[in-house]
Amino acid sequence: MDQMVAMRASELGLTTEALIQHIVAAIDRARVEPKPFYHLEFDGIFPDEVYAKMLEALPNSRDYRPMHGRSKGNDLADGTHTRVKIDLFPEYIRHLPTGKRAIWRVVGAALCSEPVKDAFRRKLAPALEKRFGAGFQSVGMFPIPILTRDIPGYKITPHTDTHWKGITVQLYLPRDEANTDIGTIFHDVLPDGSMPKARQMRFAPNSGYAFAVGNDTWHSADPVHDRVETRDSILLTYFVDQGPLKVLRNRGKRVGNFLLNEIRSRR
């Protein structure tokens, strides 16, 4: 970690480029699963040495801020938030301790890169074309990577993501395979309206999944059980970035979150 902190900008750039190449290769070799909806499953999304540094540099609980939206409904009776987050943008991670800042800057930059975005577009092409049509490649996608932490009690009922989102990616960050049973669940939708579990992702080290958001992408998470201290992952969401409303919304959301984070950091 000390070596990464001391890197000159040019060296850090080379490290980011190497990480981008590795992630792109991992996406290209990802397993394609057509059911219950078209999605990718991958392993080794990060190089082993980078993954080890990421685990070493996981922030302390006080460095996170509450996650809003559906997660807010899972707050515990005493007000404890069961899901918290840190946006992996430079303006957020600058508040992390120096020894932890560099690796997350590299990871955030790699995940926001054009080559990684293009790799997801290529691999998810059939599902993206189903939603956006033949011109899906020209649809803008605005990446927002966030480091999330769930604690026992967190859950989310079956849902499809909002139409504002184009691609959903989750990268799991456990230290071992002790709790592979808390991964995301994908659902079938039967004619009678029931939604049985069709497939569950394994919450395994350095693994993850991705799908193009659609009307059929029903997924959920069972309550995190008390054998788990934290359920850490990266959520990489590509928001549809087409048309003045969506373009302004995406950038305004980033600015607004930045201001809220600055206020919080001064308390």
Provide a compact summary of the structure.
The protein is of the alpha+beta class.
Structure description:
This protein is globular. The strands form 2 sheets. It has an 8-stranded antiparallel β-sheet with strand order 1-2-10-7-12-5-4-3. It has a 4-stranded antiparallel β-sheet with strand order 6-11-8-9, with no helix packed on it. Helices cover 34% and strands 24% of the residues. The protein has one domain: Jelly Rolls (Sandwich), CATH 2.60.120.620. The chain is built from 8 helices and 12 strands. The protein has helices spanning 2-5, 9-28, 48-56, 90-93, 98-111, 114-123, 125-132, 244-265; strands at residues 31-33, 39-43, 65-66, 83-87, 141-150, 156-159, 165-172, 185-187, 197-200, 207-212, 219-221, 231-240.
How do the strands and helices of this protein lay out in sequence?
Elements: H1 2-5, H2 9-28, E1 31-33, E2 39-43, H3 48-56, E3 65-66, E4 83-87, H4 90-93, H5 98-111, H6 114-123, H7 125-132, E5 141-150, E6 156-159, E7 165-172, E8 185-187, E9 197-200, E10 207-212, E11 219-221, E12 231-240, H8 244-265
Helix pairs in contact: 2-5, 2-6
Overall shape: globular
What is the succession of H and E elements? HHEEHEEHHHHEEEEEEEEH
Which CATH class is shown?
A: Mainly Beta
Tell me the CATH topology: Jelly Rolls
Mean pLDDT: 89
Q: Class by helix and strand content?
A: alpha+beta
How many domains would you count in the coordinates? 1
CATH superfamily, called what?
Answer: q2cbj1_9rhob like domain
Major beta-sheet overview: 8 strands, antiparallel
Q: pLDDT below 50 for ≥5 consecutive residues: which ranges?
A: none
Strand residues, percent:
15-25%
Helix content: 25-40%
Strand neighbour order, sheet with most strands: 1-2-10-7-12-5-4-3
Specify Rg, calculated over alpha carbons: 18 Å
Which CATH architecture is right?
Answer: Sandwich
Number of strands: 12
Number of distinct helices: 8
**How far is it from the N-terminal to the C-terminal residue, by CA?**
29 Å
